[in-house]
Write a structure and sequence with these properties.
Layout lengths: L7 H29 L26 E6 L6 H13 L8 E8 L5 H4 L2 H7 L4 E7 L2 H5 L7 E5 L5 E5 L12 H10 L10 E2 L28 E3 L3
Parallel strand pairs: 1-2, 2-3, 5-6
Antiparallel strand pairs: 1-4, 3-7, 4-5
Helix pairs in contact: 2-6
Length: about 230
């Protein structure tokens, strides 16, 4: 006697397979989504340019700082979005831009010759500085790659946060729009400066193990030095 294809003994294995496949798809989707919005480190909030900073605040226009981990692939999107924000700013209001790339105390070309650094050096009007040991980044409270800060000539904070919708994601987003508005003068009072999350790798900071760390024997005698063009 033959078993019909719609017999209950066939339905259970098929149902179990379909359910297992659906669960697997959901787990993969959840894993990818969770990573996209993962925040590796929390920054320390500030409301003004640190007095102990060794960087130079522009006296006649806003100053924008972008803190980077040179080996963070997600930060390529942050650079693209920052360039878009600056391009959308009227020429007379465009800021002084400093890209602060944190590197370990001992580092080599694996840290300085990266796609992220190359794109940083091609950013119009920007200067790239290597922050050895992350000491300068720590003064500003930055903790994640892709963190953008904008300051008025007075030193008041205008914007702090990321400029991407999620990790490594390019496209119009609230961070980029908020930064553009801040640079154009369409921002709230300094104490109400927009602050948004940053999606990127943890920066190389003092007293911490540097993520994606590589070995090298090149040691800088200064805390900051400019990338050669």
């Amino acid at each position: 006697m033959s078993v019909k294809s719609n017999s209950p003994r066939w339905k259970w294995p098929v149902s179990t397979f379909v359910l297992g496949w659906a669960v697997a798809i959901c787990m993969v989707w959840w894993s990818m989504t969770a990573y996209s919005f993962q925040i590796d480190a929390e920054h320390r909030p500030i409301d003004a340019w640190p007095q102990e900073a060794d960087l130079t605040l522009a006296p006649d226009r806003p100053t924008v700082l972008l803190f980077l981990h040179p080996r963070c692939p997600c930060s390529v999107a942050s650079l693209t979005e920052l360039e878009q924000a600056i391009a959308a700013t009227p020429a007379e209001l465009r800021p002084s831009v400093l890209v602060i790339a944190t590197v370990p105390e001992q580092y080599d070309a694996k840290w300085t010759d990266t796609k992220t650094i190359a794109q940083s050096e091609s950013l119009p009007g920007a200067s790239v500085l290597f922050d050895v040991g992350g000491r300068e980044s720590q003064k500003f409270g930055a903790a994640s790659s892709g963190h953008v800060m904008a300051f008025a000539p007075s030193g008041d904070l205008l914007y702090s946060g990321g400029v991407t919708q999620s990790r490594g994601h390019e496209g119009i987003n609230l961070g980029r729009v908020s930064l553009t508005e801040a640079l154009a003068g369409n921002h709230a009072e300094p104490e109400e400066a927009a602050t948004l999350p940053v999606f990127g790798c943890r920066l190389c900071l003092p007293d911490e193990t540097c993520p994606i760390e590589g070995s090298g024997n090149s040691v800088s005698s200064s805390v900051l030095h400019m990338s050669p063009r």
